[in-house]
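Page 47, continued from p. 46.
Same chain as before, 269 aa.
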Amino acid sequence: MPSLTALKSEPGTRSEPALEDAFDRLVAEGRNRLDRPLLPLLATGLVGGIDVGVGVLAYLVIDRATGQPLLAAAGFTIGFVALLLARSELFTENFMVPVAARVAGHGSWIQLLRLWVVTLVANLVGGLAMAALVDAAIPGLGVTAARVGRHYATLGISWRSLLLAVLAGVVITLMTRMQHAADALGPALVAAVAMSFVLVSARLLHSVLDSIFMFAGLLSGRADYTWADWAGILGWAVLGNVLGGVGLVTAVRLLRVTHRVQEERARHR
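Result:
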């Protein structure tokens, strides 16, 4: 294993070789995501929502049984382990990879917007299906789901809720960066578990995850919030997630390999 010193840039170099290799991998995968046909794109997003729904189920079961939110948050991480191993995707996982490819001159902004919109809608449909299954199969979780969902539904449109969404975007995009820098499955799993635990235990505002909690509460008939409340907080969460993931993580990371970005763009002119 290289030493910490070896991983750092030598004085006068433009960037670390490891950063350049990671950038090349991001661009290659991002190009594939931008070019993905509609049906596979829908399927990947749908399964992503279902995978996170499994984590939500684990959270609700543990929370109801123990009354310990931190323990429940640890159980939730199984949803992000499923995302990694099943190679499904969340809307927020598409901030670094395809954006890097687009900035490097691949695809188009329309393709990037299509990727985001289709993945988000598919995530929400998959999450809604899982919430409906949970409510029908285990109705005793309704009270817990309504309580958890209420926290997110009643955050309102405020600076605090926006910052919670920004932090969620930062956490998930950093997870994506860590996983793409890993050459083995073990470190990637560690990133999935650690970052998803932070996301849920800190009760950050994540557009897909929080929607599934709210769906479960709404479908149970025990929620004291409405579908309009969900729609309002969803839009606010999406804005904050994009600001955090693209503005505070992806943009800064790309600044470290600006010469490689310029080289890629020059190759495609």
